[in-house]
Amino acid sequence: MIVTLVVLGLLLIQTIVIYNRLIRLRNNAREGWSGIDVQLKRRADLVPNLVTTVKGYANHEQQLLEDITKLRNQTIADQSIPNQAKTAAELGRSLQRLLVIAEAYPELKADKNFLKLQEQLSEIENTLQKSRRYYNGTVRELNIKIESFPSNLVAKIFSFEKFDFFALTDASDRAVPEINLN
Hints:
The chain is mostly helical.
C-alpha cells in the first residue's frame, strides 16, 4: 500500500514537472513569435516611407511599388505562421529588388531620407533574423518535448500541439548565389 502511494506520488510529481516544462516551452515559443511579429510590423511600417521616397525618383517602377504595398498589407494581416513566413519572404525579396533599382538613381542613393530608411531596414532585417533563430530554437525544443517519451504522454493528455517553424518557403531563398569572377 505504501509502495503504491509512493509510486503514484512520484508519477504525479513527474507529470507536474513535465507539464510545467511544456508550459514554459510553449510560452517561450509564443514569445519568440511575438519578437518576429514586432519586427515584421516595424518593417511594414517602414515600407510606405520607403515607397514614397523611391516614387519621387523612379516613377516608371510603379508595378514594383504597388507589389510592395500589397505585400506590406498582407504582412500586417493576421495569417498562419507558414503564410506569414511566405509573405515576409516575398516582401523581403521585393524590398531587395527595390534597393537594387535604387542603385540606378544616383540622386536617390544620395537622398538623406532614403539613406536613413535603408539603414533602418537593414537594422530591422538583422533583428528579424535573430528573432527567427530564437523562435525556431524554442519551437524545436517544444516539438522535441511533445514527441519524446514520457513527455509525449503528458502533452497528449493536456492537448499540447506542435508549433510550425518560421521557414523559408521559396527554394530560390535556399540557393547558393553564383559568383562569377571573370
